[in-house]
TrEMBL record:
UniProt protein name: Glutathione S-transferase 1-1-like
Gene: LOC111355915
Name of one Pfam family that matches: GST_C
Family of this protein: Belongs to the GST superfamily.
GO molecular function, one term: glutathione transferase activity
Domain GST N-terminal: 1-82
Domain GST C-terminal, residue spans: 89-221
Alphabetical list of CDD domains matching this protein: GST_C_Delta_Epsilon, GST_N_Delta_Epsilon
Species for this entry: Spodoptera litura
Oligomeric form and interacting partners: Homodimer.
Length: 221
């Protein structure tokens, strides 16, 4: 039975799971969820995920949500024992976990806290929140100093998580990555070295841009 993924292509967390699946050469049964139409509240979906969030993975009679938990699960179950995406060495794995937690707890929330109220709620730009986002990008730029990838010299789950976020930030145009040369260099590298990047991430970025354009058009009417 194929693994089923309930997802929204424009969502950065959903694109992380798509990137991980591509890196592991896992075929997914893709089930789009229209959040704007409220499909996440359908009774059938709530049975799978009472938090009604995407992405949600279904593996037989097992369901799991939260993108980074899904990513670890996929590598643990479907990757080989020494898969470099999530290394077994305790210290190497700890660095990957730290970068994943940084994305989950700092970078993505700071982006969302600044940008989403503007595009979805019509709020005015908050310069203090923008500075917090820029600070997070400085942190990432520092993490990358002397490293090829986010957690060392090999592509890991940390890169796939962070690139889903950074590509989303880049798509909005709210900051220039030129201000963060290590981030810019790393971003270009991951775009060419992450397996299936165009289909797994760029296609969703294009959908995200189209959504932003539609919201912008409405505000300009």
């Amino acid at each position: 039975m194929a693994l089923a993924l309930y997802y929204t292509a424009g969502s950065a967390p959903c694109r992380l799971v798509l990137l991980v699946a591509a890196a592991l050469n896992i075929q997914l049964d893709l089930n789009p969820v229209n959040l704007r139409a409220g499909e996440q509240f359908n009774p059938e979906f709530l049975k799978l995920n009472p938090q009604h969030t995407v992405p949600t993975l279904v593996d037989g009679d097992f369901s799991l949500w939260e993108s980074r938990a899904i990513s670890r699960y996929l590598v643990s179950k479907y990757g080989d024992e020494n898969n470099s995406l999530y290394p077994s060495d305790p210290q190497a794995r700890a660095v990957v976990d730290q970068r994943l937690d940084f994305d989950l707890g700092t970078l993505y929330p700071r982006f969302g806290g600044y940008f989403y109220p503007q595009i979805f709620g019509g709020a005015k730009a908050d310069e203090a929140l923008l500075k917090k986002l820029e600070e997070a990008l400085v942190f990432l730029n520092t993490f990358l100093e002397g490293n090829t990838y986010a957690a060392g010299d090999k592509l890991t789950l940390a890169d796939l998580s962070l690139v889903a976020t950074v590509s989303t930030i880049d798509a909005t145009g709210i900051v220039s990555l030129d201000k963060y040369p290590n981030v810019q260099k790393w971003f270009e590298l991951v775009k060419t070295s992450a397996p299936g990047y165009d289909k797994a991430n760029q296609a969703g970025i294009d959908e995200f841009k189209a959504l932003l354009a539609s919201f912008k058009a409405k505000t300009e009417l």
